[in-house]
């Protein structure tokens, strides 16, 4: 029995609330149980210097945690004067994951800045961030279409993410913080709506895991992401994104 | 007629929602119209080195804005590697304002860290932060009482804040962003529940203001803060804080 | 009786010595008793990027304390790698105060950098800085007129500053360090030559102050600033600045 | 045909040269073809503050590239004043990988600092770093045994790493830089001597990859790491490490 | 003829004004012509961690230039967030030079912090700093003797510094800024009162210099430093320092 | 007898191995005994902003030590976030030394970046760096000639460096670390192939040294540098550099 009482293949209650932020071109408040992340997508009509005149756009991401999103207060990165290695690792992952489903030349020479700010943390903040950011990104592109700056969405498919882990030998889906901190192994999967693998990050916390164990985690992830992408489609409403 | 259509002495709709954050010892989501600030109070049983063995406690504050809380995206301070002068000025103001109504020796050698994070900005973020933080601070002390670490709240009174300004020559209460950016003068008042002045910061934006104008702003502030402290008392419920 | 032995409405001996610095376009060594600040004004024919092609100039200020200007040595900010919140707050105040009496479009697209460096500190460094900087700024503009780059000074009036406080219940003018560190309340006033309010910053150190107390401080400030602006006029000699 | 002319399952020439560094307690110059990394292991008899009195030791890693290890010069991180996100990601990976095969309580309250400095880069610097660092770590523990500070090596097994990728649809082993920069997908595997999975990091560069493709990469990695761990055993000579 | 009109072996007018700073335990305003440096010596009863329990004291130095001490304004190092290589080089030189004439064990486990702040620069700021700091240091030790914390000064001799250079082939003493910026070679000499060499730093600016040229510069320096140490003795008055 | 057993005027075994680095336009691994420094020269076709349109080129240098190049591990400067004063002092010295033998206008508006990275340290890293960098620089210019971008080398002569010191009163050449750490005085000489002085840096470690002692050190240096420049000529092979 996992600490949360959930079945091994059961997600936490997930909600995706688009339009949470009044100013952002796209936004989504995503909740995976007690993990709440505000994802915003901001359009910047300029690309970074190294991309100018390439005819391509860019999607980049930043990630932060409110100091008291965590069980005990975490130092504010702005006050410490630098972002931790963990923060940088996560924001690089979010950016890569989203770019995997965007046709960069089709978006024109502009940049979308994704901001994922964790209001409350209970495990899985990076997977919630990716899942919610895709929704925010969708609406930023919708805005560009509405303004006549794009004729179609450069999004080529859905992308969502979930963590899986070995809990006392059993593969379980969508670890919350108490589960994550005691899992024997922990893997984050970023998959497309059609089940393609975009990113896999598996880490043995306690002892190495075997190939069959890893395959079992991947199977769980595919099931969970099937559900997450269904919720994403509900969140964006009728739209140009095809079902998987 | 002010841009917001409000009467000169009319606050924006204000709400104070305690307990917004699951992990913090005290928290309050404060809204002054479209300005939304999440205030948390975190108890730290250690004081900073320079206060050890003084027998006194400390209340300190940090302030931040989510990058897309603003009309156009603002750079993330954690990514830029330092907090702006404005941020530091505001967090020092919040800390001083709260300490003015706390009996520091009575709270014991511990520190309360206040975090004010702006989820959405539309003017008056510093005054909303002070007003909401007082509520978060109240609940953090309640927690210490409940845990038997304090026998009574060291809070000696209420404190709240509001901005006032001159709009086309007319003194107006609680400026929102469009009003603030065009006001001829702008002053922030931090007053106690009994009308005592804790902090005054007045700045002539366009041309100097006269003494009578300044007095008129102070009168408006007293009215507004009377209403804000009433809402604070509603938010904390029946408690040891006396009405003014 | 205040610690300094001065009457409640008595300034410390004040001197303003223009031309202290050989290289600066304008300079003034200002002394408020044992508080000595070297103020320089440097002309930069370029404005910051965000002001280019606006047809306006800019006046900005930086502030620093020599490590041993203080009673005990203070860490050097250049060695610590960042300016404190206090430093930033003060230099923003100095800049705003001076800009309030400069016609920015009239000064052309150039910038004046004011540097206020405290050689010796005994309270009131920010008010001395503002008072002395106005003199330095005056001479920088005189230089531009002499060089034919301006036809008239873009200064629209005088600006000076003084602190006031409550000393054992009595309002007193121009606090020195021993007074400041024990005052019950402390306010800095920045006024124009004609008595207009440019900046007010009042802080209750010990307990909140009342509105009548605050008005009494403002009255003292007006008296003190009348004297300071008289000394400024003496320091600049016969010039285009009208008496108030 | 891959650019390097190697068979799909063929490693580059690999060499592991222990004792390259005169001062370090353990060291190894590892070469994967033209990728050369100097790995050193330094014993520090103190652990970081948060580990004191836990009875456990720690292994941590830092990573850097010489500015001209790369095809075109890369800015020196010490001059830029911070380590990139990529650097931090890699050094965290190296540390986790090594700790997976160390019995931390058995090593006593001391820390081993691994430094991986890339003298020349041609792809696969992180996998070479992990493979070489294990050898350096081995010798640092040997030194502690020789000095009588440990009675047996706390190393519980071997760990090595290799990258695999999809080159024009074909799974290939041990990507060099030209292959890596054009691969359709790229995965780094960190495995133990007995084939257990310690870390997996897969990234689709161009388009998502399928589960069978991912399994094929894992199979290649197992083969490559079998060879790398054989070379590690040769490098350390007769020792307490059992063959897999 | 050198630009300054001085004879080749002629110092600029030099003055040493002790006690310039009200708060510092020792201070001296040193002027070498238009180069003005405020030197202060601050006693710190604690030594840095790495010196604790060594029974020895330490003398360290920091150096800074006011932004407008220079002909055109120099960026403030505190604002730029770091000290330049030049600044660090100079402050290390000042510290080493002073320690060469201090019996560190005799001064007890305390530290003297020397601060050299350039109020006005016209070449030779580092040599003026060393010369003036020795006077400031003297008075800090006098203070410790007066307070009964030391029975005798731990200063073992005098130290002073001067620059020399080749001006159109002629060796000249004590370069001012116009001379320094066009000199063919430039050397700073730090000598004791008895002519011993403490530091030599020679740099060919334009073309290498010969051994005889270098010896000629050293001869000039000895003459100049003879005069500087005479002025130091006048500045400190009758004291325990023997004439050379 | 010096600790190394060498004769007073004997260099350590010196080797200069050009072409050590595969990617750099010029490179040299230099060994002075157990001091090993990798020197690379990288061509950058852009000059820094302040040199644009001057028609001149620039040679600059950076220096670093691998964390475990030293007897005990030194913190990584990239991790500490800044370069030490010592590092900056050394890299400025290397740059000045090389520029002394380069005709900057003749090299065209481009920059050569020298990187000196210490793989193993045993005293004299800065002198080895200068000596080896000259070889790396030579080959970078050869590359420009080969590519038709220059018609002749802008190098006007050789430059090399060596340290000398007083060991128990005896002048000795080329100090290794045990000698350096106990020498009574220590001087670094940078001389041209024809014996001209480019840089001299002498520091009395223990007690001041006399003029004759200093001259003796210079004589030793001339002898040592004669040998070093001979080895440089061997390393570059037949070339346009004339023998001294």
TrEMBL record, chains A, B, C, D, E, F:
EC number(s) stated in the UniProt entry for this protein = 2.7.7.56
**What reaction does this catalyse?**
tRNA(n+1) + phosphate = tRNA(n) + a ribonucleoside 5'-diphosphate
Q: Which residues form the Exoribonuclease phosphorolytic domain?
A: 10-138, 158-224
GO BP field: rRNA 3'-end processing; rRNA catabolic process; tRNA processing
Its assembly, as annotated, is: Homohexameric ring arranged as a trimer of dimers.
UniProt binding sites for phosphate: 86, 124-126
Tell me which UniProt keywords the record has, alphabetically: Nucleotidyltransferase, RNA-binding, rRNA processing, Transferase, tRNA processing, tRNA-binding
Q: Domain of life of the organism in this record?
A: Bacteria
SUPFAM superfamilies from the entry? Answer: Ribonuclease PH domain 2-like, Ribosomal protein S5 domain 2-like
Alphabetical list of CDD domains matching this protein: RNase_PH_bact
This protein's species is Reyranella soli
* UniProt family annotation: Belongs to the RNase PH family.
Q: Can you say what this protein is called?
A: Ribonuclease PH
Q: Which GO terms describe its molecular function?
A: 3'-5'-RNA exonuclease activity; tRNA binding; tRNA nucleotidyltransferase activity
The reply to whether Transferase figures as a keyword in the UniProt entry is yes
What's its job? Phosphorolytic 3'-5' exoribonuclease that plays an important role in tRNA 3'-end maturation. Removes nucleotide residues following the 3'-CCA terminus of tRNAs; can also add nucleotides to the ends of RNA molecules by using nucleoside diphosphates as substrates, but this may not be physiologically important. Probably plays a role in initiation of 16S rRNA degradation (leading to ribosome degradation) during starvation.
Lineage of producing organism:
Bacteria, Pseudomonadati, Pseudomonadota, Alphaproteobacteria, Hyphomicrobiales
Q: Which NCBIfam families match?
A: RNasePH
């Amino acid at each position: 029995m996992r600490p949360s009482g959930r079945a091994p293949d059961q997600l936490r209650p997930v909600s995706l609330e688009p339009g949470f932020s009044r100013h952002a071109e796209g936004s989504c408040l995503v909740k995976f149980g007690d993990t709440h992340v505000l994802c915003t997508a901001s359009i910047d009509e300029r690309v970074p210097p190294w991309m100018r005149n390439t005819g391509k756009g860019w999607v980049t991401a930043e990630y932060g945690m409110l100091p008291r999103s965590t069980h005990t207060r975490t130092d504010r990165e702005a006050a410490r004067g630098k972002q931790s290695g963990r923060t940088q690792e996560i924001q690089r992952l979010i950016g890569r994951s989203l770019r995997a489903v965007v046709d960069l030349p089709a978006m024109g020479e502009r940049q979308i800045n994704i901001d994922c700010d964790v209001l409350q943390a209970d495990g899985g903040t990076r997977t919630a961030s990716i899942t919610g950011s895709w929704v925010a990104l969708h609406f930023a592109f919708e805005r560009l279409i509405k303004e006549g700056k794009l004729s179609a969405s450069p999004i080529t498919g859905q992308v969502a993410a979930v963590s899986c882990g070995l809990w006392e030998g059993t593969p379980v889906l969508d670890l919350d913080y108490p589960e994550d901190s005691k899992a024997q192994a922990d893997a984050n999967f970023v998959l497309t709506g059609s089940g393609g693998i975009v990113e896999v990050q598996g880490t043995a916390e306690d002892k190495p895991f075997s190939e069959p164990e890893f395959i079992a985690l991947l199977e769980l992830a595919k099931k969970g992401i099937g559900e997450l992408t269904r919720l994403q489609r509900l969140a964006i409403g009728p739209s140009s994104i095809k079902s998987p």
